[in-house]
Amino acid sequence: MTVAAPTCPRPAVDAGTGPRPAPACALVVLAAGNPARGDDALGPLLAERLSVLAVPGLRLVSDFQFQLEHALELADAGLALFIDAHRSQRAPVRLAEIDAAADCGRVSHALTPAEVLAVAARIGQPRPPAWVLSLRGTDFELGRPLGPSGRLTLAYGWGVLRYLIANPSVSRWRALASQLGH
Predict the structure, then answer these.
(1) Does the pLDDT value for residue 108 go beyond 70?
(2) pTM of the predicted protein model
């Protein structure tokens, strides 16, 4: 399940020659989660809301999990934002700046955002400043709908995401992260 904002196309790739230059994207948003697992749907639900806004300079990708291929989405990004639900956090929403993982030697279909950045570095792509918007989840059971606490987190996360989209600036995102108590 991939949603792409038409205002900022993916970098074109030639077989054997790698990525071709594409219009620079001010922001790439990658959201992960499974809509069939309760609060795990938070990332895709935010991506769905964002997709109808047609934000200029935005590339939007929504998938079940972060994968190796998502490193290609970062090729021409000015900023990157990863969105995912997490069980072990107290605050409804956290915003944290991240860097590439020190080691990404394992091969897996599921990566952390820091490992996606490490893959980008490994294939020689410049890494944009990157952030994780994590949303508190409490119920991840298969077949469950988004619960009452998940709906509250979704509303709060939507407000934070709208601010981030309207203010694509490292300094503003850092200020917001400190206010949210990252």
Answers:
(1) no
(2) 0.84
